[in-house]
Design goal:
This protein is mostly helical. The protein has a domain at 17-41. Helices cover 17% and strands 0% of the residues. The chain has one helix and no strands.
Length: 52
């Protein structure tokens, strides 16, 4: 691999998984939707030590 990959983690506290436009919600989130459609979106993730 000659170039380094672009990696962007978006982590929000207190955000439901279905609160974005890319998941079918009516809320308009065009920039996050574009990132989700052009990249990889994990829809089934768990944590053993949540923040709240």
């Amino acid at each position: 691999m000659k170039t380094k990959p672009n990696i962007l983690f978006i982590m929000c506290d207190q955000l439901r998984a279905d609160a974005l436009g890319c998941t079918g919600n009516w809320v308009k989130t065009p920039n996050i939707d574009r990132i989700a459609h052009e990249g990889v979106r994990f829809s089934n993730c768990v944590t053993n030590s949540p923040v709240c």
